Amino acid sequence: MAFTNFQDVIRLIAVSLILLSQLAVSQVTPSIRPFPLNRVRLTNSRWTDNQARTVTYLKFIDVERLLYNFRANHGVSTKGAAALGGWDAPNFPFRTHMQGHFLTAWAYCYASLGDTTCRDRALYFVAELAKCQASNGYLSGFPESDFDLVEARKLTNGNVPYYAVHKTMAGLLDVWQLFDDNTARDVLLKLAGWVDNRTSKLSSAQMQAMLGTEFGGMNDVLADIYHQTGDKRWLTVAQRFDHASVFDPLASNQDRLDGLHANTQVPKWIGAVKEYTSTGASKYLAIARNAWNFTVNAHTYAIGGNSQAEHFRAPNKISGYLSKDTAEGCNTYNMLKLTRELWMTDSSVGDKTHHFDFYERALINHMLGQQNPQDKHGHITYFTSLNPGGRRGVGPAWGGGTWSTDHNSFWCCQGTGIETNTKLMDSVYFTKDEPSSKVLYVNLFTPSVLNWAEQSVTITQTTGFPVEDTTTLLINSTRGDSAGNWALRIRIPSWTSPEAEVRVNGEKVAGLAAVPGTYFPLQRDWKNGDRVTVRLPMFLRAVPANDNPSIAAFAYGPAVLAGNYGDTVLSAVPKLALDTVRRASGDKIEFEVTADSKSVRLQPFYDAHGHNYNVYWATSGRLPA
Ligand SMILES: *[C@@H]1O[C@H](CO)[C@@H](O)[C@H](O)[C@H]1NC(C)=O
Ligand SMILES: *[C@@H]1O[C@H](CO)[C@@H](O)[C@H](O)[C@H]1NC(C)=O
Ligand SMILES: *[C@@H]1O[C@H](CO)[C@@H](O)[C@H](O)[C@H]1NC(C)=O
Q: What is residue 218's three-state secondary structure?
């Protein structure tokens, strides 16, 4: 092709650029959607107990003290409030990360429970943040000079200002979305504009160097703002935070996680899913999918947690790292978010349940028991120890060393913990529109009521799961006898047996088997009062360490078991003879075993509180048939 003049060349370039930008941005809409938080109500159970303790803390914490660092940094009166301690102390490198978690947790509390104290706290906090921002145009607990230092790679105080900014932005976004609050919107977009302004001045080499400092999920929240506003500016800023040294190996399916700080990475992968839905670029989906696969299959302990001393170790090195500082809480909070986003988005998953099998495992065995049931404010432990004779709330001093406290901890895991325990209803049910029908997914077996208003039905789930192996779904119609024609898809976990069954009004569904590891599809004309019973037989199984088949944990159904050692100190992994395992109680999950020649009781790990426990054993022989 010959160009006759310069203008033709310019025109051709312009047309190509427009075509390229259209190619680059083609949104993907996940086919599966969650229900709004106010549509799912948890009913009395172990789950609502956790929720109630956290909500008590959300309403107890002194909001003026939480505002201290923002006000002090922006030259606004601190109203005589005292500074807080721990990670919110005025010079601590992670200060003001906690406040964004409170904004999110208050928003969840109001959205799910209609609690007006939570609402008023969130709205007041946002209004006060607006005053801080008005005083000098940005919003942070750090002076702007600290951002200069991070950019110039001259930071010597360990500060992670963008980590905290991410949490603030995520909290503001939740308040904007869940309360429709314009102040939250304005503060958020102004803060995002400030981030754009700063980062647009950096070369890509400077930007990539800066990404060496932990920055939470900046790509995630900015992609969310793009989804919320439709303004491509925010997508451009989100993509500036794509961390090449982490993304590139994952895009080509290489596990280079060994030695990386784990919780620094997972939020970036959640962002990758959002960048995939923003752009349609398959590279982002590959990054998230491969990161999930590596983490779950090569870096995760039986309880669903990952990391040792906050870091990923070599792939499959599980038995070599059974220490006090395993399974940082935040990592699992973030892995659950990643799991949920990927499952909704990755259409190649089909009817396989591995995503929610992992979700259930990590939620029940790690997150549920991370909270102290003896504490009315629901304080949490930073690590969940997997050393022989570990104990919740006892860890290395640098990782808390104890349970979190009201005013002097504010660790990352305390922040993610208040979110976890106020969104326990968010992944039980999902929906999807298929050409032939509407679909309702039941992913978790949690006592709850779903208001599926679009179909004029409520679904009441009743279960003592995981202590009981049965769950009942009662379908009620609000429009008379008929409850409509739609499809139910119930997760049949991979840990159950082919004897799993689904019955409608007591009758087995003809011609349909409940296959472990798939969703049970049930489309029919539903009637008011139809009752679906799901039975998922549980049995005892070993969960061997990836790197050593003779070192194993045990699980009964979804529940990982732990030996109760009282105050006995263990110095090595106990030796357990498999043929000694006996069920100790018919109606509780309790087993009796002989380990190191002593009788030990095994109980669900989520209830292993107030005593030393053991999760991994050196096994010999075979389990009794
Ligand atoms: C962008 O930064 C410059 C200084 O580098 C400042 O003068 C300007 O006001 C900033 N704009 C916004 C929108 O923050
Ligand atoms: C998932 O990760 C495992 C463990 O590293 C690996 O063996 C497997 O090949 C990966 N699967 C895919 C589809 O990449
Ligand atoms: C739901 O159905 C059950 C079983 O028929 C019935 O007992 C109950 O009253 C119904 N509840 C409502 C709200 O219609």
A: helix
Q: Is 451 found in the same domain as 324?
A: no
What is residue 25's predicted lDDT score, i.e. its pLDDT?
A: 66
The pLDDT, as a whole number, for residue 13 is 61
Residue type for 100, please? G
Q: Is 533 in the pocket of ligand 2 (CB under 6 A)?
A: no
**Whole-angstrom Cα distance, residue 263 to residue 285?**
19
Query: Separation of 290 CA from ligand 2 center, angstroms?
Result: 8
Ligand 3 centre to CA of 65 (Å) is 48
- Give the helix/strand (H/E) hosting 9: helix 6-24
Domain that holds residue 590: 540-620
24 in a structural domain: no
Residues 517 and 580 in one domain: no
Name, in order, each residue with C-beta under 8 angstroms of 388's C-beta and a sequence gap of 6 or more.
Answer: 322, 570, 571, 572, 573, 574, 614, 616
Does 496 share its domain with 611?
no
User: pTM to 2 decimals?
Assistant: 0.95
pLDDT at 550: 96
Same domain for 510 and 368: no
Is 147 close to ligand 1, i.e. is its CB under 6 Å away?
A: no
> Is 530 a member of any domain?
yes
Q: CA angle, 225 as apex, 223 and 230 as ends, to 5°?
A: 95
Contact 477, 526 (CB under 8 A): yes
Under 8 Å CB-to-CB from 435, ≥6 apart: which residues? none
Cα(429)–Cα(425) distance, integer angstroms: 8
Whether residue 407 is found in the same domain as residue 303: yes
Instruction: Name the helix (H) or strand (E) containing 361.
Output: helix 354-362
In a domain, 260, yes or no: yes
Query: Using a 6 Å cutoff on CB, does residue 359 contact ligand 1?
Result: no
Q: Are residues 75 and 180 in the same domain?
A: yes
The secondary structure of the chain in percent helix, strand, coil, rounded to multiples of 5, reads 45, 20, 35
Number of domains in the chain: 4
Within a domain: residue 5? no
Q: Which string of b and e fits 533-542 if b means at least 16 CB within 10 Å?
A: bbbbebebeb
Among 501, 535, 569, give the residue marking a domain's end. Answer: 535
- Is the beta carbon of 138 within 6 A of some atom in ligand 1? no
- pLDDT at site 373: 98
CB count within 10 Å of CB 70 equals 23
H/E stretch holding 508: strand 507-508
Q: How remote is the CA of residue 205 from the centroid of ligand 2, in Å?
A: 31
User: In 549-585, which positions are buried (b, 16+ CB within 10 angstroms) versus exposed (e)?
Assistant: eebbbbbbbbbbbbbbbeeeebeebbebbbebbeeee
pLDDT the model gives residue 97 = 98
| Weakly modelled stretches of the chain, pLDDT under 70 | 1-25
Q: Are residues 392 and 249 in the same domain?
A: yes
* The pLDDT value given to residue 65: 98
Same domain, 503 and 422: no
Q: What is the reported pLDDT for 16?
A: 57
The β-bridge relationship of strands 438-442 and 482-492 is parallel
Which of 535, 565, 588 finishes a domain? 535
Q: Which atom of ligand 1 is nearest to the CA of 201?
A: 5
CATH of the domain at 499: 2.60.40.1180
Give tens-digit pLDDT for 274-317.
999 999 999 999 999 999 999 999 999 999 999 999 999 999 99
What is the structure's pLDDT at 17? Answer: 52
